[in-house]
Amino acid sequence: MTTAADVVALLTGRGQTLAVAESLTGGLVSGAVTAVPGASRVLRGSVTAYATEVKRELLGVDADLLAARGAVDEDVARAMAGGVRRVLGADWGIATTGVAGPEPQDGQPVGTVFVAVVGPGETGRTRRLALSGDRAGIREGSVAGVLDLLMGEVAAQLPDDARAKDTEQRGGF
After folding, report:
1. Which has the closest alpha carbon to 77: 144, 11, 24, 136?
2. At what angle do helices 135-156 and 4-14 cross, to 10 degrees?
3. Taking burial as the number of CB atoms within 10 A of a residue's CB, which of 25, 37, 132, 153 is the most buried?
């Protein structure tokens, strides 16, 4: 499992920066990153976009998309990651949106989470997580899920020889 320390170390080594957009995690992702010594070298900032209008007005998530699908959506997560990357001027943007409970939201059951990463060249990925447990467990699982996704995308952009060395040192991803 990827830790925030792994992310900080990899981004520091590459001289790259990170911006975080969070909804259901409410600051847990940026909190995990800032708990790591040296995080100031990589973290540009974060936006806790809990309200739908903040996603739209600050992060630039399309209003029609939000109206049609709600905030708990794969494309919304990707737009949040791209938006925070642009707004905060980072190399990488990551985002979390989902339902931590106790009630379903936007037609999605509790535990439905979308995490996203957008990197250089606006390339990115999203992942749907189906988490179980209580509210705290779902939020913590979301943090782990977005950090894993980020680590995979950053590592995928490493040259093959650097990726092989990194995998040897870390034991794989």
Report:
1. 24
2. 30
3. 25
**How many residues are there in the chain?**
173
Can you give the pLDDT at residue 131?
A: 98
DSSP 165: H
- CATH number of residue 17's parent domain: 3.90.950.20
User: Which residue's structure tokens are 């977005």?
Assistant: 146
pLDDT in tens, 61-83: 999 999 999 999 999 999 999 99
Is residue 8 in some structural domain? yes
3-state helix, strand, coil in the chain (%, to 5): 50, 20, 30
pLDDT tens per residue across span 82-98: 999 999 999 999 999 99
